[in-house]
Amino acid sequence: MSKIPSQQLRIIGGQWRSRRLRFPAIDGLRPTLDRIRETVFNWLQFDVEGARVLDAFAGSGALGFEALSRGAKEVIFLEKHPAAALQLKDNLQLLEARNAQVWAGDALLWLEQNPEPFDLVFLDPPFHKNLLQPAIDALRLLPGALIYVEHEASLQPQWPANWQERKSKATKEFCFRLFEVVAA
């Protein structure tokens, strides 16, 4: 088996600011860009510290590592690709992060089997794989929970009635949005 080449991402804030982490160069794996992560974490600046975070479809783990760096109480990374999941574990070890876990498997299956409450969820599935709507439908969140969603611009997901959009931005290629779960 040949070794998968790797790329790097940089943590942009918090205790690990400027630390570089490796991630495998896998087709379809696209870490959230630095400038977008900066915007998202500006949106979330008062909501990350002490939060239970789920990074579904983690890929490089850019969003989850950023949350850990900024004081999240716990992060669960869900990643199906074995090389990416292994690299997430290696990066957690490198950072000596003990308040995070990697689940190497199908994120949709995990969501169906673990209706745990999270304070913050990152949903950034691979584009053009029809994973976003099933993930949205599988989430069970309490009022006050926040959900960051990144999706291709052409997609028109059906948002749950109790998800109130807080912020959003779009480019020609993709949209990114922050929702809050409100009482039904």
TrEMBL record:
It comes from the Bacteria. GO terms for molecular function: 16S rRNA (guanine(966)-N(2))-methyltransferase activity; nucleic acid binding. It catalyses: guanosine(966) in 16S rRNA + S-adenosyl-L-methionine = N(2)-methylguanosine(966) in 16S rRNA + S-adenosyl-L-homocysteine + H(+). Gene3D superfamilies: Vaccinia Virus protein VP39. Coiled coil: none annotated. Its EC number is 2.1.1.171. PROSITE patterns: N6_MTASE. Keywords: Methyltransferase, rRNA processing, S-adenosyl-L-methionine, Transferase. The keyword Ion transport does not apply. CDD domains: AdoMet_MTases. Belongs to the methyltransferase superfamily. RsmD family. Specifically methylates the guanine in position 966 of 16S rRNA in the assembled 30S particle. PANTHER family: METHYLTRANSFERASE. This is Ribosomal RNA small subunit methyltransferase D. The gene is rsmD.
